[in-house]
Amino acid sequence: MNEITPDRKKAAALTRQVGIDFGAALTVALAYAGDRLGIFKALADGAPMTSPQLAQRTRLSERYIREWTATMAASGYLDYNPTDATFRLNREQAMVLANEDNTFFMGGAFQYAVACYRQLAKLMESFEHGGGVPFTDFGGDIVEAIERLFHAGYETWVAQEWIPAVPDIHERLLVGGEVAEVGCGAGQCIIPVAMAYPSSRFFGYDLDQASIERARRKAAQAGLAERVTFERIAAEQLSFAGRFDLVMAFNCIHDMAQPRRVLAAIRRIIKPDGAALWSEAHAGDRLEDNLTPQGRTMYASSTMHCMTVSLAQGGEGLGSVIGADQARAMAHEAGFTRFEQLPVKNPVHQIFLLRQ
Ligand SMILES: C[S@@+](CC[C@H](N)C(=O)[O-])C[C@H]1O[C@@H](n2cnc3c(N)ncnc32)[C@H](O)[C@@H]1O
Hints:
Strand order of the largest sheet: 5-4-3-6-7-9-8
Radius of gyration: 22 Å
Distance between the termini: 60 Å
Number of helices: 14
CATH class of the largest domain: Alpha Beta
Shape: globular
Structural class: alpha/beta
CATH architecture of the largest domain: 3-Layer(aba) Sandwich
Bound molecules: S-adenosylmethionine
């Protein structure tokens, strides 16, 4: 084999991989359909069903259900029993595909992917002419997708592990302090954290009006409207100084047009003895460390959403793949003197603690 003769085995291996990815891309779209049409939820009780029974339960066309269930069984998303031609969600599949309130649930990922697919034509225009696709163009699906992807994690980890890992702040919030969250989305983090610290007051800030309205509705439904307020404002424009005991910025700094100005604003609005918690998804600082399936997911979602929404505002387009060294450099550039990684293990987030 010389340099100019392609290795047919390597080409065949790549063809197989692309074929698998092709099937995965189509499966994601069909899983989205199953999520939105309530098919996974109709299987949530684990009862085995034939495709006619499932069609009857969901009131959907049997022919489509038959083809869909075959796709899902071939994907490992459903179990199939050939003896009676039934499909079922086993307990683990139900956690990932049907039950919204646990950290393994991935329905939001299908919704996120399809919201991105829908904007592909505009994204390609941005490849050609620069700029980006605005956050609002992704529509309500993206707000809901992000909420569904992350809420169970925030409900499980933030007040239980992340804040208690900073004991002085935890103590202050138990007694009664003030907490801000920038890029709060639909309130998926701040609302459960507010429930855990009933003596403290909470202020959520986000640029997206639809997210803020959704957050306000949820806070009111939870009976928290007095103690948890939301405002539509760009984080870099917050005008307080030395006010908050804690500022949270989870999974959002990378989406922002001016992430460095936002970090500087966070530093300005915390008290001199306050703290900021900033999370990004786990990533290494070097591209070569991120050439993994997880890295692929992050670079792809960054290109299709996080980076482009920042560029659409004439922003930096930081991208969502951020290692600890880059985060440390950005924190120091913003004037923080202390930067450390929170000593908690998390499957999704790396969490940084910043102090004046
Ligand atoms: C990926 S979402 C994360 C939402 C939430 N923190 C979570 O982790 O589920 C990023 C959020 O940042 C918001 N955002 C973007 N730029 C902003 C800015 N300059 N100021 C405040 N919020 C901003 C977006 O509207 C969006 O709700």
